[in-house]
Amino acid sequence: GQQLNQSPQSMFIQEGEDVSMNCTSSSIFNTWLWYKQDPGEGPVLLIALYKAGELTSNGRLTAQFGITRKDSFLNISASIPSDVGIYFCAGPPNNAGNMLTFGGGTRLMVKP
Amino acid sequence: DVKVTQSSRYLVKRTGEKVFLECVQDMDHENMFWYRQDPGLGLRLIYFSYDVKMKEKGDIPEGYSVSREKKERFSLILESASTNQTSMYLCASSSPTGAGNTIYFGEGSWLTVV
Questions:
Q1: Given an 8 Å threshold on Cβ–Cβ distance, is B103 in contact with A1?
Q2: Each residue's pLDDT tens digit in chain B (114 positions)?
Q3: Is the CB of residue B4 less than 8 Å from the CB of residue B74?
């Protein structure tokens, strides 16, 4: 079953604001992934994290792999309307290779 | 460009009908997956396959079956559709190496069962 708790479930922000969302697990993950799903499309990988403490950026997106290996954060700076979508954290439970468990998603809405 | 193609974007079926959702990938990937996506529940794994004719149950296999007769094709079958199977279905594929960054998703199939 689902093992990742993602929050918040949804956010409605003003264009230009920064956004932060997080994901926690009751068990250790050795990889954390963040996906974005545009409306009507499949999820696309944004950032992959492989080491505890790792901080990785992809343009205006920054993600961090928590030191405890039980959490991860995704930040979006200076949001724009095309940031709208659902953001999912994911990871392989019990190091199960390409099997992924997904968080419940954070729905982001941006007001122009 | 890598591609995972789901044959039907939108379907409406009646309760009790047999439903086939087809997925094709052109990346020669060994692994293929079927997820369903429901609001607030994220993506839940129904079945996956790591080779032709091989299949493994995921988290929610009840009411579903799958078929993998060819490497590039993975079909999800609802033997007798029910209204609680109304959902968005996502197919994905990956190679055995790597840890998630080689997983590619299709665009999704919206199934409504009435």
A1: no
A2: 668 999 989 999 999 999 999 999 998 888 899 999 988 788 899 999 989 999 999 989 999 999 999 999 999 999 999 999 999 999 999 876 655 556 889 999 999 999
A3: no
In angstroms, the CA B58 to CA B33 distance is 9
Residue B85 and residue B26 in contact, taking contact as beta carbons nearer than 8 Å: no
The alpha carbon of residue A24 is apart from the nearest alpha carbon of chain B, in Å, by: 14
Q: Which residues face A37 on adjacent strands?
A: A86
The pairing of beta strand A10-14 with beta strand B19-25:
unpaired
- Rounded-to-integer distance, Cα B49 and Cα B68, Å: 7
Which residue type does B51 have?
D
Q: Any chain A CB within 8 A of the CB of B59?
A: yes
Closest CA to A54 of A74, A35, A77, A84: A74
Per this entry, what is the length of chain A?
112
